[in-house]
Amino acid sequence: MVAAAVLNHQLRAGGGLLHRLRRHQAEAWRLQCKPVCASTELELNHWLQAVPWRGEWPRAVLADHQTRGQGQRGRRWEAARGGVWISAALPWDASGGHADMLGLIVALALAERLEQEGLPVRIKWPNDLLIDSRKLAGMLPRLVFRGGRLRMVRIGIGLNVANPSPMGAVALRELLPPGRARRDFWAVEVLRALGRVQTLANRPEVVRRGIENRLWTHQVQDPQSGETWDIQGLASNGALQLCQGTRTASWTRWPDGTLDNLYNLVQ
Asked: Measured between alpha carbons, how far is residue 80 from residues 3, 12, 38, 83, 88 in Å?
């Protein structure tokens, strides 16, 4: 009986999302919807093992509730009901696009959708969305290679919608009228944003300018040395370009290692 209830939940939730996606001509998704799981990343791993990836259609696992969500450097947290918790696998056109900017591309695509609701979104390099210095969403990008060839891109997204927001974070229910802070609506919006990834990847200058216009601050402090650097912008590969007088620096990740290199997952 429990298994049947879970299956029925998946069918109802997945069918409802697909219906909404069709209204936006974005129905080319294969979805699994879970009432509860340890981690959407683990569920996506199991799906890709059970049904080998051929790249025809993007896939996504959505969960109402995660008990052991995965974040940067393998950090774990409980993702409460009311938020959008998604792990997706997307095909990638290897002949074009800048896959090394994946996290920034997704951040920009989702920021654009949030801005349609009048929200003043800022992008904290390299992969968080902020409202007034409080975290609204986070992204976990991965590139999957096989035999030296980029096989797929994967992205995990957590968006605070109607869930209790942790310390230092904010949820959409605190920012929008009740009718605009619905989890089902924003699950579709996240999937629509993911659907723009390849298009934006083929327009790297648009992405670079879009990110630079939404950066969360003009200065950053090196967590190791304590030095303050002025942000000059982004390099073509998404690196943060910095200067301090005549000195220059380029960060591809935070110097204290809080962002591990997420672009080396091999399967």
From this structure: 22, 20, 12, 7, 19
Distance CA 79, CA 41 (A): 13
Tell me the residue ranges of DSSP E strands in 4-97.
30-34, 59-63, 66-70, 76-79, 84-90
For 49-66, what is each residue's pLDDT tens digit?
999 998 889 999 999 999
Could you identify the residue written with the tokens 């918790």?
Answer: 85
N residues, the chain: 267
Q: How far apart are CA 138 and CA 216, in angstroms?
A: 14
CA separation for the pair 35, 53 (Å, rounded): 24
Residue written as token pair 């949030």: 114
What pTM does this model have? 0.86
Q: Band the pLDDT of 1: cuts 50, 70, 90.
A: very low
Q: What is the DSSP string of 148-199?
A: TEEEEEEEEEEE-SSSPPPTTB--GGGTS-GGG--HHHHHHHHHHHHHTHHH
Quote the CA–CA distance of 114 and 157 in Å, as a whole number. 14
Smallest CA-to-CA distance from 200 within 131, 75, 61, 103 is with: 103
Q: From CA 74, how far away is CA 51, in angstroms rounded? A: 25
Confidence label for 261 from pLDDT (cuts 50, 70 and 90): very low
